[in-house]
Amino acid sequence: MKVWGSMAVMTATWAIAAGATAAAPFTLEHALSYPFVDHLVAAPHVDRIAWVRTVRGVRNVWVADGPGLTPRQVTQFKADDGQELTGLTFSPDGRTLVFVRGGDHDANWPAKDNLQPNPDSSLDEPKVTLWLADPTGAKPAAAITEGDEPALTDTGTLAYVKAGQVWTTKLDGTGAHKLFFDRGKDGELAWSPDGRRLVFVSNREDHAFIGVYAGADRPLSWMAPSSSRDDAPVWSPDGARIAFTRQPGVGGAPEPRLADIPHPWSIWTTDVATGAGRRVWSSDKTLHGSYPRVENEANLHWARGGALLFLSTADNWPHLYTVADQPDAAARLLTPGAFMVEHLAMSRDDASVIYSANTGPSSEDDDRRHLFAVSVEAGAPVELTGGETLEWAPAALGTRVAFLGADARNPPAVQVVDLSAQGRRLLDGQAPPAGFPGAQFVVPKKVTFRAPDGLVIHGQLFQAPQSTQNGAARTPGLIFVHGGPPRQMMLGWSYTDYYTHAYAMNQYYAAHGYTVLSVNYRLGIGYGYDFQNPASGGPKGSSEYQDVLAAGKYLQGAAGVDPARIGIWGGSYGGLLTALALARNSDLFKAGVDFHGVHDWSRVEAEREGPPLMRFEQGDRAQAADVAFHASPSSEVSTWTSPVLLIQGDDDRNVRFNETIDLENRLTAKGVSVEELVIPNEIHGFLRWSSWLEADQAATDFLGRKLGAAQ
After folding, report:
1. CA distance 442 to 409
2. Among 55, 33, 32, 13, residue whose Cα is nearest residue 509
3. What gap in Å lies between CA 408 and CA 438, rounded to an integer?
């Protein structure tokens, strides 16, 4: 077994697969030097936006004001230290900006003893802290106190969450204290429009309440409390009412694990003064009517005229609806069509909603994102952006909308367009670092193919033009499988940092002698509820693997590809599918790189659910565990012969590190060639740029040796 270490990785000479050009067009470091932009927010009442820009692991907050929207950096962090910047929060008047530094906000479970990520192995224990930034840039950013989930008023009152309770402090960090006692675990804080009352969710494990704090001299009040799980509270514009979502409390007969069942939900509104509530809408008791498991879930907002806006998959697609604040009112569809709505923002006057969707005039737009606007009262959606670009994360200004945009070659950057769909422009000062090779990137080609059961699967093909020229040597093929699995790879840069990295790596591989096929297998988003929720998917039978196998066979037949040299790589759920491909079809997949994949579904499910309750009814737990194990790579090690590189950080909070240990021990016992790279103190989606570089160098060397050796 080969064990990669930092010095070995940094000093190795990277093998280039047979068929590559003699001189690499760009280096791995250059490919990974792209800037990434995220967390775009707008001040509620003024034309001011803020975002986080990361370059080579160094994260900083930027701000721009209207009308010119000239960007300026308002923090001065210098190190690739792996400390997240999230939770950007303006006061309503835009004069104050607070953000969160540290933590792992994408974790599946809390850290043991509440220890926060320490990926650079600092001698000081990291904490999740609140910071104050001056939006004008005149004063340096400063730490306020330990905490998370900030909520601000115009007067500078700051509420936040610490250890599951609501706290408050002055903006200079003095006077920090618990705002009130609640025996639940609190979150989702929001001040009323007048800044005098605070709504929050009190999570009590099997049920949850919507609570309101109205001052130190009053007890907490509860909005229509019940045995249900209430969530996502939003204030009406006048502060008189609160809307929220309601799902049944946890209980009843054990739910089947091997069959999907509906998870109905409803929308309620309450009178804040009395706490009395009413149901204004309820979903159908069908699979399509289940609570949406998409970006921001129900996406509940108040709209002009007292209506409510929300998202539902009732017609198989994540679409926007509006409903009146009346008992059991009928909802009206705003966004009809075979596409998904994903990121959205209300216009400043609450009269329309701006959203991203994978639709447009081109047949390729289902693998992109574009922006649209639609009135909540009447009218058809209006396309704001389009073409061979991608746009997402709208942030409403007065008569304009800021957003993040990219294409096949240019990485994400902040842009702006008028709500009339005119005047689109890129904000200044966002050029990538010198040497970034985006101009040399290929434009991925949309391809489709059928799985054995007939389902149409989408993918993106990355192939250098010279690979298909007459007389050119055949190149190795490489399948990429995304994680999630509710994700979608697109015909350009992604809107997440994890898949922006994957996109850059697929471009690097294409430039260095590989033909790459990125696969949007079933379980992913973008193609409807039924595609995302297939029968026998995941631990219920891994039906999605047939899409990966079909992709491998498609790639074998692609022009310029050597069918005897097909590899595969992926992370998280993509790591699982990489391992499953090697276990079931080493005859096709000759090598693989598995980043932090799940390898034994039965163990994962048992750890997630905990020990069985001491009750008579156990449902299909035992049968489901058997099916889950046999849907896992660990159950099929006997047919695994191809070499594999396993990569994981040992502070992973999404896939337990024991998944790598378990699989490596099984493969070593069988005599399979296993190499590993373990990164101490790193989490699932590596927080440090240097960690990604180390891992990618190991991966490119491994694939070069294993696929380049076969002729």
Report:
1. 8
2. 32
3. 8
d(CA 283, CA 277): 18
How far is 675 from 656, CA to CA, in rounded Å? 19
The chain-wide mean pLDDT, for the chain, equals: 94
Q: How would you class 273 by CB atoms within 10 Å of its CB: exposed for 0-12, middle for 13-18, buried for 19 or more?
A: exposed
Range with the poorest average pLDDT among 5-19, 250-264, 309-323, 614-628: 5-19
Beta strands in 108-183 (DSSP E): 129-133, 142-146, 148-152, 158-162, 165-169, 177-178
407 Cβ contact list (under 8 Å, min separation 6): 388, 389, 390, 492, 493
| SS3 state of residue 512 | coil
- To the question of pTM greater than 0.85 for the whole model, the response is yes
Is 484 in contact with 556 (CB distance < 8 Å)? no
Q: Tokens at residue 258, please?
A: 């091997």
The backbone torsions φ and ψ at residue 667, rounded to the nearest 5 degrees and listed phi first, read: -70, -40
Query: 1-34 pLDDT, tens per residue?
Result: 666 653 333 223 223 333 333 345 799 999 999 9
Element containing residue 176 per DSSP (H, E): none
**CA 557 to CA 65: how far, in whole Å?**
52
E strands, 546-673, are: 561-571, 589-595, 644-649
pLDDT digits (tens, 9 = 90+) for 91-144: 999 999 999 999 999 998 887 778 999 999 999 999 999 999 999 999 999 999
Residue 350's CB: how many other CB atoms inside 10 A? 17
User: What pLDDT score was predicted for residue 466?
Assistant: 76
8 A C-beta contact, residue 129 and residue 101: yes
Residue 556 near residue 671 (C-beta atoms within 8 A): no
Q: Kindly list the strands in the beta sheet with 148-152, ordered across the sheet, starting from the edge strand earlier in the chain.
A: 148-152, 158-162, 165-169, 177-178
Write the DSSP assignment of 283-299 as a string of letters: --SSSTTSPP-STTTT-
Rg (C-alpha) for the chain, rounded Å, is: 25
Could you read off the pLDDT of 42-92 as tens digits, one per residue?
Answer: 999 999 999 999 999 999 999 999 899 999 999 999 999 999 999 999 999
**Residue 285 CA neighbour count, 13 Å, CB half:** 1
Cβ atoms of 4 and 674 closer than 8 Å: no
